[in-house]
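Hi, here's the filled form for the chain we discussed.

Project: internal
Contact: R.S.
Residues: 375
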Amino acid sequence: MEKLYKTWAEIDLGAVRDNIARIRERIGRRVKILAVVKADAYGHGMSQVSRAALEAGVTWLGVSNIHEALLLRKAHPEALILILSAGMEGHAKAIVRHRVTPVICSIEMLEAVAAAARKAGRRVGIHIVVDTGMGRIGIWHERAFEFVKRAARTKGVRLEGLSSHFACAADRDLGFSKFQLDHFKKLLRRCERAGIRAPLTHIANSGAILGLPTSFFTMVRLGIMMYGVYPSREVIKSIPIRPALTLKTEIGYLKEVPKGRSISYCRSYVTYRDTRIATIPIGYGDGYCRLLSNRGEVLVRGQRAPIVGNVTMDQTMIDVGHIPGVRVGDEAVLIGKQGENEITVNEVADLISTIPYDVMCAMGKQVQHRIYLNE
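And the returned structure, exactly as it came back:
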């Protein structure tokens, strides 16, 4: 079959399953795992990653909104799906109809879901979000108990989960995370004394899985580490994981360039010697950030080739004058391993002063062709 693409992502689903297995060893058999597959599984492909995660024993899948939930429901009819972001009242009927579970953090959404459930003759499981310091969605912890009490006696809904979200569990200093955890524990104890119990309690994300074992409760939310990337440089790498993503392209054009010639828009790079410049068919239109201009590197024949000149919308230039035998059609690796060398997502993120989540989501959204390995 004719190959009609020049840039592609290889997703190793075996790595996804292996990473889940390593996390399982860390948290024990009794703690459930919710696999976070929002944003098209951080650019890895929501349906395929979800299937691998379910095969590896995760119990829940987490998405961002009703649109993602419905796409996932179509691919996985029996999966337990939790919408992790605050929903809108107009989504209540779809939530009930398609058997997805919402997080609740307002009276209005609670009543809308309850009314839709009663009309359908059902009780719908809900998870209440408590804000212990993230400052995003959720009921502030000081007022959460009264809200939980109201939800527990609301007809049409079933209190299935209580959750919160760490603001900085991937930082070296876990002081604020422990402060948040303390507030969450206080709420859980108060609910227990009142006879209110939720089968699922969860606050731990990838950073907390690594550094805060007291936060595991009955479920953890596994995000970036499922994809083989640590959430920051500062975390203690207490669990071995391996990347699932390799981003590849091919050299599309190659030419000899004399000393003193400028490369790309704005003439931001001028050759300091006679060299060979290769053009690869990827740019910021593919999610490959323009800030990598004159600072990023690409692997060619197992060696690092620097990006020279400005990254353009769909083409990027690299200097391969020091690499013998380079030809048009040679594979170039932008993220991943080639020979003994590796360019990691974290390395790329550091170069452009962002976080690894940003790098994966940007590229995953734009790179259309994916090849799945170890399905």
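Let me know if anything looks off before we file it.
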